[in-house]
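Hi L.,

As promised, Transcriptional regulator:
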Amino acid sequence: MASPNINPTVRRRRLGQELRRLRETKGLTAEGVAERLLVSQSKISRLENGRRSISPRDVRDLCNVYEVEDPRVVESLMQMAKDSRQQGWWHAFGDIPYSVYIGLETDAESLRVYEPQVVPGLLQTTEYAEAVISGALPESTPEEWRKRVGVRLRRKERITTAAVPLRLWAVIDESVLRREVGDRHLMLAQLEHLQELSKLPHVTIQVLPFSAGAHTGLSGHYAILEFPETTDSSVVYIEGVTSDLYLEKTADVQKYTVMYEHLRAKAMSAEDSMEYIADIAKQHYAK
């Protein structure tokens, strides 16, 4: 059953961080803990980075190894393990390959994204999303397309109807605006939608024009997520075809943050970007 108040992805991350802290406090290595529990080192690593579901029994065993004597601490950690095994709202849509990302985005306070190919998912119209998903997944069934569109529209509520909206900053390449997804009418509606969303106080959209030349985003799409809890480290998300990459080390996050600042500096201002989008809409799609 999905819980509206519990985010299992975030619970796993916080629990993993606490377990890592307990291990390091005792001066133990992940390899040493794995040997004592007769499990693989990769299992300990996956538990600590929040990428694997953890059972209350796992928590109990780890607490024994770490000599956690306060029963209230053990009980609190075991409760986090139980919460982390609940289902988020996205599980109602079935098996979603990027469910870890959705869980992070759902709990994030801010999101900075660079997109060189298509309009970022949170800024897409329904029709544009349908065209993008069906075009990107030609071998999938219409039912799978509809499922993904439904998830995308639900995610969009973070910027359109949430009581505490997500702070979104998007830098999009000019090619995004000129790639005709669907037909001209669909693209015109999508560009007008970008202009409308840009009026929201928590949404900033900048266009990176072709004239910017070489830039720090040439390696492709990425996103930086930040969270309201200071104990939750920022995450860099890089989407892949068969698997995704999540970077949480301070040095990695800092590297991508600096890259993003260079992108923002090379992009048009938010005001000029909206004028540019309006011009492209008028010249290429309003016919």
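The first strand starts at residue 110 and ends at 115.

Thanks again for sending the construct details.

K.
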